[in-house]
Amino acid sequence: MALLQITEPGQAVDPHQRKRAAGLDLGTTNSLIASVREGVAETLPDEQGRHMLPSVVRYASGGIIVGDEALTEAVNDSMNTIVSVKRLMGRGIEDLATLGDQLPYRFSASEGGMPRIETISGSVTPVEVSAEILRTLVDRASATLDGDLDGVVITVPAYFDDAQRQATKDAAQLAGVNVLRLLNEPTAAAIAYGLDSGSEGVIAIYDLGGGTFDISLLRLRKGVFEVLATGGDSALGGDDFDRAIAGWIVEQSGYAKPLATEQLRGLLMASRAIKESLTDNAKVDIDFDRDGVQFKGALDRATFDELVAPLVDASIKACRRAVRDAGVELGDIHNVVLVGGSTRVPQVIDQVANYFGKTPLNNMDPDKVVAVGAAVQANILVGNKPDDEMLLLDVLPLSLGLETVGGLAEKVISRNTAIPTERAQEFTTYKDGQAAMLIHVLQGERELVADCRSLARFELTGIPPMVAGAAKIEVMFNVDADGLLSVSARETSTGTQASVEVKPSYGLTDEEITSMLQASFEHATEDANQRSLMEARVESGRVIEALGNALAEDGAALLMESDIQALQQAIEKLGSLSEGEDHLAISEGTELLGRASEEFASLRMDAAVRKALAGRNIEEVDKEI
Amino acid sequence: MDFNRNYFEIFGLPVDYAVAEELLADRFLELQKQVHPDRFAAGTDQEKRLAMQWATLVNTANETLRAPLPRAIYMLELRGVALKHNPALPPSFLMDQIDLREQLEEIEEDEGDLEELDSFRKKMLLAINVVQAKFKEALDEDIDKAERLVYELQFLSKLMVSASRLEEKLLDY
Ligand SMILES: Nc1ncnc2c1ncn2[C@@H]1O[C@H](COP(=O)(O)OP(=O)(O)OP(=O)(O)O)[C@@H](O)[C@H]1O
Ligand SMILES: [Mg+2]
Description:
The complex is a heterodimer. By secondary structure, chain A is α+β, with helices and mostly antiparallel strands. In chain A, 38% of the residues lie in helices and 26% in strands. In chain A, strands 1, 2, 3, 4, 5, 12 and 13 form a seven-stranded mixed β-sheet that branches. Chain A has a five-stranded mixed β-sheet with strand order 19-14-15-16-20, with helices on both faces. A five-stranded antiparallel β-sheet of chain A has the order 22-21-24-25-28, with no helix packed on it. The two termini of chain A are 52 Å apart. By secondary structure, chain B is mostly helical. In chain B, helix 3 packs across helix 4. Chain B is globular, with a radius of gyration of 20 Å. The complex binds adenosine-5'-triphosphate and magnesium ion.
């Protein structure tokens, strides 16, 4: 892989002020962490020189083991060794049946409807398991980079829904890392690819990993990566290829009884080895004999191709839809980029080439390209490249809507809308004096509520008494740049803010997160107070630095001398406050300084907008006014 | 922040139904480069909040001005005209609409002749263009007529959506 060389602009950040940032590819099968060092984005190896960390967590009696050492025990201790946990993120316990898996774990339900996995050291949620993987990688990066990370970018499949994204963010919170942004995996790959090639135009990123499939179409223009459309299947990947082979072996062996956990795990691991071997060989000999399942024979590529054809076809179908959604013709697509380990399968490469009518590019290591792109973005977001013009504009992957009468879903924001975005929907009461209303938030493309994902249910209370149809209730959907949704509501004819209670359908409740955090503090024997103090200082430092820079840049142009002095004094005050030990006082001071500078921040933003339109600097624009 | 600025002003464009698409697309990118939350990921909560509001506004404005129907509705809104839910429309127009719906159904029953569907869509596009041209003219001369034309545009757009759905179904998307 051509290492990514990033040319530093004239005004590079002073090396002493450089922040530590990293990109994390939290994969179904493998996870990686990458960082930009001396202008080069590269994945970071562990002490043994291994870059990829198998996404496997083993809960052993002696402690928690993550990675290769856990993987070797996956067959022998399958109940306590969690693999492919990403497939469970943001899922409800009743979803597990539809994941097409016989998952080899014992599940129980948690308060928020999220499944818990029973292990030897108690029950854990998928969020906690993912947090262990994140923590392992973050520790690796801190050791390599010689200090704590200031921020990370975590990648998620573009096709992840709101619950899956939220679960990923929760995992990061548990792991104690500052998330600068959730970034879609194909977009990350596009950054790595686009910067490497420098070419403009429309590119298609076909990403088939272990557990998820994504297709994204992006336009690269004027340094902006604009996602035109995205599609895929958050439950389609190499794991399914393995399962197809396992099913074939069982069929050939004539074994008719249902498979036990250990048997299944053993079969799947063998199948994966067979599949990977078929990438370079036309035929693979099999001699499988384990726990009563016996088969001696061979699997050739033609039979394998037949086995996985429905899976590959499903991915191509998603490509067609995405191309259509993007409003481009196949001929407009300049390049097709392959990402993910499963794009090594010859049949996949052939089908993709066949559909797009183009030989796909795979000159970048498909395993590393996502982490590398995330590292580039993290380096920019953390503030190490203030002059970089690169920008990413992403879209909402799946439509958001509300339940209406008759079990129908009504779209409020349709898929592939540019984010961040907001949309209001108006409702009315259907009974005289109705004081409350139930609102059900959904995600998905289908017409029936039952076919969509349920994100949250609201109870809207405090509607003033009126005749039926007179109340006007406005439900506001806000989607942020991470693609995460928040909802608020108010009664508009009287202006009453109706109170809203959101209960995520498959999330962790706030209480659950708090108690997990507390448990982990006890683990680390870290004082929670000390941690709060540290966090308060980091935030106050951030505000002081940002405001100081802003004053230096635009203070003279936008403010009166007396205002500048007042703000500078306030900065100094917060500075000395931060040297104290009272985290509440520091937080309060930070908040006050924020409010005092509200007007200035707003003025700066307006000026930036004017400057963008006029292509001139702030002073010049200002003189005209 | 001045939320009352109209969408055209945000992009520095003249308030005119005929929008220079290329220019709009360029200005959109230029503005997002300034206000997108990614620019403030390392900033204060206040900056993040402002950036999020601005980027949302710029996205909404872009979506509204980019497509003909939302742009037409917005032009009416700027003139203080709110659309009615069940407007009265001339019977002849409604008859035409029923006719067009039937044509679409026939194509579906005809085992979905793709060529027929294609020519149907071309016909619709032509009709939409005609209504748009009339709308642009009526806007300054006869606001009631402009409003009526928007309802027509709504009908035609819905038909186009149905035609696209049918195509998706026929092509098995
Ligand atoms: N040589 C190969 N031939 C076929 N498949 C391979 C080969 N090498 C790896 N794979 C498959 O690639 C998959 C892992 O890919 P990758 O590491 O990109 O996934 P991931 O990032 O962990 O998952 P995801 O992106 O879906 O969350 C596994 O199913 C693995 O068997
Ligand atoms: Mg991956």
